[in-house]
Structures are given as C-alpha cells and as structure tokens.
UniProtKB/TrEMBL annotation:
Protein name: tRNA N6-adenosine threonylcarbamoyltransferase
PANTHER family cross-referenced by the UniProt entry: TRNA N6-ADENOSINE THREONYLCARBAMOYLTRANSFERASE (PTHR11735), TRNA N6-ADENOSINE THREONYLCARBAMOYLTRANSFERASE, MITOCHONDRIAL (PTHR11735:SF6)
Pfam families: TsaD
Gene3D superfamilies, alphabetized: 3.30.420.40
Subcellular location: Cytoplasm
GO biological process, one term: tRNA threonylcarbamoyladenosine modification
Cofactor(s) recorded in Swiss-Prot or TrEMBL: Fe(2+)
Function: Required for the formation of a threonylcarbamoyl group on adenosine at position 37 (t(6)A37) in tRNAs that read codons beginning with adenine. Is involved in the transfer of the threonylcarbamoyl moiety of threonylcarbamoyl-AMP (TC-AMP) to the N6 group of A37, together with TsaE and TsaB. TsaD likely plays a direct catalytic role in this reaction.
Sequence positions that bind substrate: L132, V133, S134, G135, G136, D165, G178, N270
C-alpha cells in the first residue's frame, strides 16, 4: 500500500505491507517556504505539493525496493485539511490507482494520527483512549474498535498545538514556534512563573487554552523580556500545558475504564508530556503508547497503515476524487476484519 499525506505543509509518502509492516517512508517539510510569512500560506503549500509529490513517490518506491507495478493499492489523506493541498494528494493518488487498476482509498487525517502507534513493535489493541493533539485539534477519543470512535472531549477555542505556536510567536520565537518553545523551556527555572491549569477545576473532558495564552502574554509584557525570563515563562507555560493534558487524560481513563492510552499528533513529541504521562499512567496500573517522534507530525506512514487496514477489511470506494476540509471523526465506519 502506497500512502500519501498532503493535508497541510508536509508532503509524506510511505509504503506499508500488511504482513511485513513499514517498508519505506519519506517526508518533505515546507517549513522554510512558510517561515517568511509566519504561518502556512495555503496556495504556496498546494503548489509545493505539486512539485514534490511525484519525485517523493519515486524515491520512496526505490527505498522500498519495489516498482510501481507491485502496489496493491493507494491511500491518501482525504481530510480534514487545506482543500488545495488535499486535492493535490487525492488527484495524484486516484490517477495512479486508475492507471494501475488497483483500489484507492481516502483516509481521515486524524484516524491516521490515532493509528500511528500501531506502527511500533508494541502497540495497543482496542478498547483504549486516545489524546489527539495535532495542529488545530485537541480531542480525547474513546476507541471501541478501529473505525469506531466516540468523542469524549474537544477544545473550545485554541488547541494545544495552536497555543504552543501562538505563545511562542508572542514572545518573539521563530516559526514554527511550538518546538522552539519546548527547547527553550528546558533551560527555564521551574516555578518562577506558574500559570493556571485551564478547566481542571471543574468536571468534564473539554479543553480551553486561550486563557492560558493570555496569561503568558501578560506575564511577558510585564517582565524584563530578558532571555532568561523568556525561558522561565516558556517553562511555566509548558508545565501548565502538560499538567492540563495529564489531568484530562487520567479523567478519561477513569471515565471509560480503559487501561491503555494513546497520544498522537505533533504535541505528542513533547518530552515533558511523554515523561509525565508515562509516570502518571503507571501509578494507576495503565499504560501509555506514543508513536516515535517522527510519526507524531504529519507523515505518509500513518496514512499507508490506515489505508491498508481499511482495504484489508474489504472497504471499497468509488473512483471519484473527493476531499473533505472538515470531516467528523465519529462519522467513520468500524472495520470488520475478514
């Protein structure tokens, strides 16, 4: 199965075999292209996918040691995402599948993230709880089976990744700000700046990070704005974010009775989050699973895996090119394995 990811500003391609696992993967990031603008420019993203996708497909197939005629199917990200970027991947995938007379299947981007831990040697089996913290999404999901998802909690405003990026930007860190802020926080003094853990003082599993972002802005504006203070504020922000996510995840495990927790998406690469959730889940007799850091961000491997699982379960789609910039995860159908 060839997998193509093009939902935003990263072009990902991978080859996955249902029996042998991941054979090869390649990723091209557009960070330098968009850095000048401080964020993703949709039209530029679409054009760069056009330039990079087919050369990346050829490179990935060569790395896997197979030819295009060896493919049994093509999976691509059908949504959610930027419509122009999605159409590039969908059009290429559908054209390739048609020319080879093999099936093509559109994959939900967030299901790809959710299933990314299954690429690892040790992976959970449903039922489990998943925290999806990718881009504009911060969701807690009850996974009853692959394809059967129940939303437990969602963000009411800024998602965790957005809060990382926006907080970094307001303190003058370069794009993309989230990873820069996390690196800076490693040098901060713990406890010098303590921010609220939003919505943890009330029941429920929803998130809200706009208030936390405002607290950081006020602290930064009223500070001496030195490099040391910037690091201390970054540390305080990161600790508040990690504590909030940890508290909500533990609540979700308690509410569902699940013993396995999956963390997926870009924020899942955060070292402090990984360490905190590993310790917290062990204390309650549960276990947390992460994808390797390179599969936390957008990638083709997760799309190839999700497509292979659906194809092996007999899911068939019409040849129409269809993308959905908005797509409810709960609307997916559960897999009935053969």
């Amino acid at each position: 199965m060839l997998g193509i990811e093009s939902s935003c500003d990263e072009t990902g391609v991978a080859v996955y075999d249902i029996e042998r696992g991941l054979l090869a993967h390649r990723l091209y990031s557009q960070i330098r292209l968009h850095a000048e603008y401080g964020g993703v420019v949709p039209e530029l993203a679409s054009r760069d996918h056009v330039r990079k996708l087919l050369p990346l497909v050829r490179e990935t197939l060569a790395a896997a040691g197979i030819g295009v005629g060896d493919l049994g199917g093509v999976a691509y990200t059908a949504g959610p995402g930027l419509i122009g970027a999605l159409l590039v991947g969908a059009s290429a995938a559908r054209a390739l599948a048609w020319s080879l007379d093999v099936p093509a299947i559109g994959v939900h981007h967030m299901e790809g993230h959710l299933l990314a831990p299954l690429l690892e040697t040790e992976s959970p089996a449903p039922p489990f709880v998943a925290l999806l913290v990718s881009g504009g999404h911060s969701m807690l999901i009850a996974v009853d089976a692959i394809g059967s998802y129940r939303l437990l909690g969602d963000t009411l405003d800024d998602a965790a990744g957005e809060a990382f990026d926006k907080t970094a930007k307001l303190m003058g860190l370069p794009y993309p700000g989230g990873p820069q802020l996390a690196k800076l926080a490693e040098h901060g003094v713990p406890g010098r700046f303590k921010f609220a853990r939003p919505m943890t003082d009330r029941p429920g599993l929803d998130f809200s990070f706009s208030g936390l972002k405002t607290q950081v802005l006020l602290a930064w504006q009223q500070s001496d704005r030195s490099d040391a203070t910037r690091a201390d504020i970054a540390r305080g922000f990161e600790e508040a974010m990690v504590d909030t996510l940890r508290i909500k995840c533990l609540r979700a495990l308690e509410a569902t009775g699940a013993k396995s927790l999956v963390i997926a998406g870009g924020v899942g690469a955060n070292r402090r989050l990984r360490a905190g959730l590993d310790e917290a889940t062990r204390r309650i007799g549960a276990r947390v699973y992460f994808p390797r850091p390179e599969f936390c961000t957008d990638n083709g491997a997760m799309i190839a895996l999700a497509g292979a699982l659906r194809l092996s379960a007999g899911q068939i789609e019409s040849p129409a090119i269809k993308v959905m910039p908005r797509w409810d995860l709960e609307s997916l159908t559960a897999l009935e394995t053969r």
